[in-house]
Amino acid sequence: MAQLSEEQKKTVTQWVAEGASLNEVQDRLKREFDITLTYLDARLLVMELGLKIQEKKQAEEPKPEDPAPEEPMPGAGAGPDDGAYSDELTEAEAELLQDDAEMLPEGGASMLSVSLDAITVPGTMVSGKVTFSDGKTGGWYVDQFGRLGLQPPEPGYQPPPTDIPAFQRELDRLLRQRGY
What we know:
Blueprint: H1 6-17, H2 22-33, H3 39-48, H4 91-99, E1 113-116, E2 124-131, E3 137-143, E4 148-151, H5 163-177
Antiparallel strand pairs: 1-2, 2-3, 3-4
Helix pairs in contact: 1-2, 2-3
């Protein structure tokens, strides 16, 4: 890690006091003092100086209050182990599906497809492929602890939002059908 003079340390302290993020401190060190630090080195420098980076808070929108439900929702109180299962969509899922209804093919059926691998990927209990409505195909697996994992078709890929609940329902249906 680079050694800073007392004046440089005071300048860094001033930047942090003004609300600079760790990235900004790193960039300004490079720009103003021609000192190149890795992100970790910049973090260590800030810690060494006893400074605390202030998190920048974005303008928070007031959240609308949800009205208290008069009746319990279907399946309310049903845990994953009591065998209760509901194919009903939540309100949020229904809104997402309704908003993107024009993206569905003419027959109204989802273009999402889920399949099981004939040979399970090593280290998993069950694995398979999923083809999202945008045509991208990725892998999925359930590990020994029951955790679901997705292997995206490309780094940074995010499936269409409506595909997530549809994928979960289809995967659940497929696994139940196969006895998992």
